[in-house]
C-alpha cells in the first residue's frame, strides 16, 4: 500500500509516545499529526483527511471514550486504535464494542505499531467492500436458519455483521452444542479472508505433549518420532482464520507460547530457532467461564484480554425456544434431502414435546434427534413415537408422562442417557455424539447417575 498522502493522527498527552510513534510512522512515509488532548485532536480530525487515529484512553479533560464516540460519529469508517497501559486493557477491550478498531498495550514495539497501522489502513481501504459485504450478508439466510432469529440471536448477528469485516480477535462462549464453530465459520465466510483457509483446532482433543507441534509444527528429527518436517495449524491457516475451540483446555505453558504468537504474529517450529511471520485471524471458543479460570490461575489474564477483544455469548437453546420451529424446518429440509424422503410436517404432540424439552445438548442434540426421526419413520410426517431413541421398543416416548405423572428433568436425563448408552453397547464416544455433548460431560453424568 502506497503510504504517500496518508495522514495519521496521534492523540496522546505523553510526549515520549507522540515522538516515538511519529518517528516510526514518518519512516514508513506517513504524514503524522499530533495532539495532547481531545479538543485539539477532534479539531485536527475535522480539518484534515485522517486515515487512522491513535488514541490514548486517559487524557486530561475529555476522556478517550468520549473522544472515540465523537470521532466515530464524524467518520464511522476511520479506524481508531486505542493506546493503553496494561492496567486499562479491560477498558480498551470495552472500546472495541464501541467501534474502536483494536488496541495497543504499552509498551509496544515499532513492529507492532507498523503492523496494526497497516491492518487499520487495509480495513479503511476495504470499507466500501465491507458495505457491499454487509448487503450480501443480509441476503444470506443460512446463518439465521442454522442458529435462529430470536432477539438474543439477532443481537449476536448484529455484532457478527460488524466484526466480520475487521481483523479483531473474537471469543465465543456458550454451552456444548450451541453452535460456536458454526458462528466462527460464519465470521470467516463473511470476512475478507473468506477465500483463505478456515482451520479448526480442537484444544480439548489434542494430547498435551503434541499440542505445541500441532499448533506451530516441528522440524525433522526435533524429537523421537519426528520423521519429517510438520507444518503446524498456524502455518496452514496463514492468510485465513484459525479457530481455537475449547481454548480453556490448554496448559499455561502453551498459553504463554500462544500469547507470543498472537503478539508477535510469528511462530517457531519445534527444533528450530528461526521464527517466521504468519498472517492469521484468531477466533477462540470455550464452554468454560474464562474469567473464573483467570481468578483461579488456570488461565493467563493477558491472554484472556488478547482473545476477548470482541466477546460473543451464545445462549443455550432452552433460553431461546422461539428459535426451535425455524431450526426444525431447517433440519427437516436438510435430512429429507440426505435420506431422500419427503417429511411434510411434525404432529402437534411431537412439536410440543420438542418445544418443552430442555435440550442439554442444544442445537447439536436437536439436529441429531430430527435426523434419527427422519431416518427411522415410515410415514410422511413425524409423530411423538418417532422421537424414540435406539433401543427403545415402547410406543411411549420418554418425553410423555407415565401414569399421569410427569417425570423430573433429572429422571428424564438419566433415562435418556441410559437408553442411548445401552443402544451403543457402552461406547461412550458414540453415545456422546448422539446425545450432542462432549465426552467429558458424558463421563461426569455417568458418574452422577451411577450408570457404570
Give a brief outline of the structure.
With 452 residues, this protein is of the alpha/beta class. Helix content is 47%, strand content 13%. It has three domains: 7-125, Rossmann fold (3-Layer(aba) Sandwich), CATH 3.40.50.2300; 128-315, P-loop containing nucleotide triphosphate hydrolases (Rossmann fold), CATH 3.40.50.300; 318-448, Helicase, Ruva Protein, domain 3.
Describe this structure in words.
There is one protein chain. By secondary structure, the chain is α/β, with parallel strands linked by helices. It has 3 domains: 119 residues, Response regulator (Rossmann fold, 3-Layer(aba) Sandwich); 188 residues, P-loop containing nucleotide triphosphate hydrolases (Rossmann fold, 3-Layer(aba) Sandwich); 131 residues, Helicase, Ruva Protein, domain 3, CATH 1.10.8. It is built from 20 helices and 14 strands. The chain has a 5-stranded parallel β-sheet with strand order 2-1-3-4-5, with helices on both faces. Helix 2 packs parallel to helix 3. The radius of gyration is 26 Å and the shape is globular.
Which helices and strands appear, and what pairs or packs with what?
Blueprint: E1 7-11, H1 15-27, E2 31-35, H2 38-47, E3 50-56, H3 64-74, E4 80-84, H4 89-97, E5 102-105, H5 110-125, H6 127-139, H7 142-147, H8 151-164, E6 170-173, H9 180-189, E7 198-202, H10 208-216, H11 233-236, E8 241-245, H12 252-264, E9 266-267, E10 276-277, E11 281-286, H13 290-295, H14 301-307, E12 310-313, H15 324-339, E13 345-346, H16 348-356, H17 362-376, E14 381-382, H18 409-423, H19 428-435, H20 439-448
Parallel strand pairs: 1-2, 1-3, 3-4, 4-5, 6-11, 6-12, 7-8, 8-11, 13-14
Antiparallel strand pairs: 9-10
Helix pairs in contact: 2-3, 8-9, 15-17, 19-20
Amino acid at each position: 500500500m502506497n503510504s504517500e498522502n496518508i495522514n495519521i493522527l496521534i492523540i496522546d498527552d505523553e510526549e515520549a509516545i507522540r515522538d516515538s510513534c511519529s518517528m516510526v510512522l514518518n519512516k514508513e512515509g506517513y504524514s503524522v499529526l499530533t495532539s495532547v488532548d481531545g479538543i485539539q485532536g477532534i479539531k485536527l480530525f475535522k480539518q484534515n483527511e485522517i486515515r487512522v487515529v491513535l488514541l490514548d484512553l486517559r487524557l486530561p479533560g475529555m476522556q478517550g471514550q468520549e473522544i472515540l464516540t465523537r470521532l466515530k460519529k464524524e467518520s464511522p469508517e476511520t479506524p481508531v486504535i486505542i493506546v493503553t497501559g496494561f492496567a486499562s486493557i479491560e477498558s480498551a477491550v470495552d472500546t472495541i464494542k464501541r467501534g474502536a478498531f483494536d488496541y495497543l498495550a504499552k509498551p509496544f514495539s515499532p513492529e507492532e505499531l507498523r503492523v496494526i497501522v497497516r491492518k487499520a489502513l487495509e480495513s479503511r481501504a476495504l470499507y466500501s467492500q465491507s458495505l457491499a459485504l454487509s448487503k450480501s450478508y443480509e441476503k444470506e439466510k443460512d446463518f439465521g436458519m442454522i442458529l435462529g432469529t430470536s432477539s438474543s440471536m439477532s443481537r449476536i448477528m448484529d455484532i457478527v455483521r460488524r466484526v466480520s469485516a475487521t481483523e479483531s480477535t473474537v471469543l465465543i462462549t456458550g454451552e456444548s452444542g450451541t453452535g460456536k464453530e458454526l458462528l466462527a465459520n460464519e465470521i470467516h465466510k463473511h470476512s475478507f479472508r473468506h477465500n483463505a483457509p478456515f482451520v479448526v483446532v480442537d484444544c480439548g482433543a489434542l494430547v498435551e505433549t503434541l499440542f505445541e507441534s500441532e499448533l506451530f509444527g516441528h522440524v525433522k528429527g526435533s524429537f523421537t518420532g519426528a520423521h519429517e518436517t510438520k507444518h503446524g495449524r498456524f502455518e496452514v491457516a496463514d492468510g485465513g482464520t484459525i479457530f481455537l475451540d475449547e481454548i480453556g483446555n490448554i496448559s499455561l505453558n502453551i498459553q504463554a507460547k500462544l500469547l507470543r504468537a498472537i503478539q508477535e504474529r510469528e511462530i517457531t517450529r519445534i527444533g528450530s530457532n528461526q521464527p517466521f511471520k504468519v498472517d492469521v485471524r484468531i477466533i477462540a471458543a470455550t464452554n468454560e467461564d474464562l474469567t473464573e479460570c483467570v481468578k483461579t490461575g488456570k488461565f493467563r489474564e493477558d491472554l484472556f484480554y488478547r482473545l476477548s477483544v470482541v466477546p460473543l455469548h451464545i445462549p443455550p437453546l432452552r433460553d431461546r425456544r422461539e428459535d426451535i420451529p425455524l431450526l426444525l424446518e431447517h433440519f427437516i429440509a436438510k435430512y429429507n434431502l440426505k435420506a431422500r424422503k419427503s417429511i411434510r410436517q411434525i404432529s402437534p404432540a411431537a412439536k410440543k414435546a420438542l418445544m418443552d424439552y430442555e435440550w442439554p445438548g442444544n442445537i447439536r442434540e436437536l439436529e441429531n434427534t430430527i435426523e434419527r426421526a427422519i431416518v427411522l419413520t415410515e410415514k410422511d410426517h413425524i409423530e411423538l413415537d418417532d422421537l424414540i431413541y435406539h433401543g427403545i421398543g415402547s410406543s411411549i416416548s420418554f418425553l410423555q408422562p407415565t401414569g399421569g405423572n410427569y417425570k423430573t428433568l433429572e429422571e428424564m436425563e438419566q433415562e435418556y442417557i441410559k437408553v442411548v448408552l445401552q443402544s451403543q453397547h457402552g461406547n461412550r464416544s458414540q453415545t456422546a455424539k448422539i446425545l450432542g455433548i462432549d465426552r467429558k460431560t458424558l463421563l461426569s453424568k455417568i458418574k452422577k447417575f451411577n450408570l457404570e
